[in-house]
Fold this sequence. Notes:
Chain A is of the alpha+beta class. Chain A has helices at 4-7, 23-32, 35-52, 54-57, 162-198, 200-215, 218-227, 235-266, 269-276, 281-317, 329-335, 339-344, 350-373; strands at residues 78-83, 86-100, 107-130, 134-143.
Amino acid sequence: MSTSTAAAPPPLPATRLADTLSPRRLMWLRFRRHRLAMLGLIVVGLIYFTAAFAEFLAPMDPNRAAARYALHPPQSITWFEHGEDGLRFRPSVPFYRMERDRRTLQARFVPDPDRRIYLRLFGEGDPYRFWGLFPASRHLLAPEQPGDPLFLTGADRLGRDVLSRTIYGARISMTVGLVGVALSLFLGVGIGGLAGYYGGRVDWVVQRLTEYVISLPTIPIWMALAAAVPRDWPPLTVYFLITLIVSLIGWTELARVVRGRFLSLRTEDFVTAARIDGCSEMRIIFRHMLPSFASHIIASMTLAIPLMILAETSLSFLGLGLQPPTISWGVLLKEAQNIRSIAAAPWLFLPGAAVVVAVLALNFLGDGLRDAADPHA
Amino acid sequence: MPEGLVQAPAMPAALRQPVLEVRNLTIGFPLRQGTLRAVDGVDFDLHAGKTLCLVGESGSGKSATARAILRIVPRPGQIEAGSILYRGAGGETDIAKLDPGGRQVRAIRGGEIAMIFQEPMTSLSPLHTIGFQLVEAIRLHTRLDRRAARARAIELLRRVEVPRAENAFERYPFEYSGGMRQRAMIAMALACNPKILIADEPTTALDVTTQAEILDLMRELQRDLGMAVLFITHDMGVVAEIADEVAVMHRGRLVERGPVEDIFLAPQAAYSRMLIQSVLRLEEPAPQRAQRAERLPNAPILLKVDGLTKVFAPRKGLFRRGGEAVQAVAGVQLELREGETLGIVGESGSGKTTLGRCIMRILEPEGGSILLRQRDGSVTDVRGLDRAGLRQAHREMRMIFQDPYGSLNPRMTVGEVIGEPLLVNGLLSGEALRRRVGELLEMVGLPAAAAERYPHAFSGGQRQRISIARAVALSPRLIVADEATSALDVSIRAQVLDLLLDMQERLGLSFLFISHDIGVVRYFCDRMAVMYRGRIVETGSTEQVCSAPEHGYTRALLSAVPSADPRRRGLGRRSRYRDE
């Protein structure tokens, strides 16, 4: 009877779907059940999609200024029109006439009931180079007569389209987060991994360094670093410098997470088993340890992106980050820095709303990923 | 003769009525796909002065049943049907119908029915002294003033044999040992003279000698106070030691209920027969051991450990004061012959795991030698090997770990896990590797198709089989098995042990088998070494050590092991060992 075990293998448990799936797939299934996180994923996806196809999606060239449309109010689209043959798809916006108050000489925009601006899907508009490569001039929505005013969310002080500028701003603001987090990830995993894997003295030094960096008051440090950037550098260089500055602060949190995971994994039985199996240090780190906390890293990264976005926004808002003509949400919000614009043109806050939506969506996404990666945390 | 078994002839009718009647208890956990019936139509009675043992393997629903009586079933579980009729001072109450957060339930909970848990550290507040918590429990259910409550608390601590009760009153839980904490928990449970005591695996986390003391205490208290006890355990030895009546649970159903002798000597249900049999089988030495008994003394010595020492030095840092160094392994000497199994037994903290890890050089020993005989007859000292040499040595000596959940990388398929040592040592790859993994899986009793799955799809016993397959993949000669069967249910444990014996015969393996479970060692090991505080106090053939122990500690340890036979209960006086 004692030898019967090897002869008669116990059957595998009844095949449940979950049994044949990889841990990553199970994580995705758990994530799918997290409604808020799915919403976050969709919103984040849409924002990045918008940023990628900004030239096509923006109705206008974000830098086209026209003094006569300064602080033009938002126009609302009417999609259908009554014609002789019933209801017809023909999008249009009202035309606003500018009037001046006779006494104060203040400009006022009043809708002109006799004139409408008709719009066309995939119409010709301001020319652009798509991704800086291919010349084109089609826009998702453009006025039939090129040059007609189309300000779906109003115009700014110089008569530029706020919607177009916000769409273009997503490009810089959302990638600052990505690039910054990528740099932070590199620094954080490297430094934290070093500390966690070797432990002892290395760990002590790295821990103190991390604490030192965390103790630095962020805004003054950013100010100092940003002030060191020469004014006459091209916008692209400034952009990369700003991401670098932002990530120099951002790596600490990731380094701590990575260090903790390394420390706890180092004593796991399966890591000891791998060592006895004859695995090299590199194989232990990259084949056994990193995969088991890759999902945690992705989750903490997702939660770090909004911090980066906020950092860029605050820097630019303070006038220390990116400078016009570069367009980012922070730069745009600088326009709304005074009381007068709040009173006269509240639509200038659209980039602020975009920041809120993006940051919230990323936070929901990150929370969902973290819960899915570690259901017991 | 245990007190509980004596039937008092002239018991008043009121006493003979059960204190608690559970009928058709059904507990469901709503899941995404339908409801999981954790407990399905369970009936039993509790009588004053009697102990009912609820036995079953993990996941059988025994804890959920106990928690339902106090209405603390963890969410989202809920009682779907059945009644829990409690006969207390205030007449009959159906606990199943009460509001789980209501006043009535709270009065019963702790006041009339008390519960103690497996891990006392998590049920005691770490921020308050034991005395404070006791006084609080007493005052919650009685009208005693502070001073009287304090006196009662100290009396209770004395009652549960906590030494120097006045001092112990002022101490915090972390200053207590595991056994003392469990005593304090019992004192707290007794604070209001409960009619029923529910004990959920109260001795599972304790060492065997401490377990024996706690069981003695519980039996004594029950005799004096006349409580009804519901004792939940998976350990049939404990059942044989303490039960009057036994209820066997399997997958949420009660498969058998009856007096303890009937269950052990004439089990009716197939499941309880299997359970008892797998326990009784471990009482005897494995048949394979008798066959090899003659040739073993002539076999060459495979491993010879001499003077092995390991000290855990306190960590010293810039701002840290050093503590005291702990000598975990103090000059251990042992020998293992080819094809032999040496059991190393000892309680937690005796240094047996550290010893195993030092021999494998997962930990670096400070002194001594680990001589391993090579296949060609030459002898190498594992302690002096460099990295490359150690890598070679690790192909000869492998390890099996205790925790079947932590020892397999959850991100790798079973095939990758088993193939890993073959791959990284450059022995096999590609199709040949896949075929070899399939063979190994079949050798340990799993289908070759299991290679495609991830570890989470397997039960504890199956995972341990995967670990064994990984260990034998390199055709080693020595396997250090550190508590390899401790985390498994008793029926699975016997299967895994048989698998190991089978592998030993086929591959000519030697085992260093580290275990706290004397029963398993008696079944599995040719010789055993008893470890106490980093030293080996006794070595000898298993039969010799078990039947005629020489060292006082060995005697204490053996006498504390519960025997899985209710007729032998309380026979053989227990001896206690106190180090000088």
